[in-house]
Amino acid sequence: MLSPKAKFPDLGEFRFVESLLSKSAPMEERPPRFRGWLPAGDDAAIFDGWLATKDLSVENVHFRMDWATPEQAVEKHIVSNVSDISAMGGVPRMALLGVCLNRNWDAELCSRVSAALSEGFARRGIALIGGDTVSGDATVFSTTLLGVQAGESPLLRSSARPGDGVYVVGTLGKSAAGLWILMHHPEEASRFAGLVEYHLCPKIRESAGAELARLGGCGACMDISDGLSSELNHLALSSGVSMEIDLESLPIDPEVLEMADYFKISALDLALNGGEEYNLVFSFADTKSILLDNNDCLGPVSRIGTVRAGSGVYRFGSDGMKELIKAQAWSHL
Length: 333
Prior knowledge:
The protein is of the alpha+beta class.
């Protein structure tokens, strides 16, 4: 550890690191209350009680500087990591941060990135405990985030049970709608500013997963990063169950409905198959569902279906017949 009087050398990389650490939340000696181990396969792994996840944000893949501010790009990156810890029923505590800065960025842009990273982690009580900085042809943010379980058991993708209700936190379709506008009609971005803002800098109920873990009654859970249709199929497959989804119950965001009507596109497609929502989809025991009502830590929660025995994810068509809902996940490969 550096002594209070220690000074970083007056070099660009050291100035960047110093600015990151100057406002970092303190590292607290609080070990996990609940011990456990879990390998890869869920939103986070667990080693000796620590939840661990890693997410990357790459310039021109996850964010574009002709669309986003540095602050928006950084916040979206942090949210993508925090949502994984939340999906496991956890609270984030510490982070290892890797940053590759675009060598063509000027000093002001780099300074804004540093401030946004430092403040974004500190605001959530997440201590920066190490990492690395380099420069390259594009900016990359890479975070390994450590958290702790809020309840005795983690929330897993494999714990849905027949009879559970299927729920989502918040509303659906906002990020996909914002991206569609930026790609197809950027001149209308100000008309639907809330959707564009959500895509560039999503705001989620970060306490939701921890609250579900504290309540008890939660079955399977994960964050909606690749699209609801994909995540529902993940949950059903991991849990060895089937799910029946009422598409009319999907909480499509009102601004998404307005935007879809304006451009004559499908709001349902945006809600069902759009990624980067980062709020949670989960199953919950019907006998305890009253615990979800009027809960400030969860925010708005909507029931969208029921877990059944069997396999696959289905909707009921207008003729009453079941129709398969296929996973339509985004893939970077």
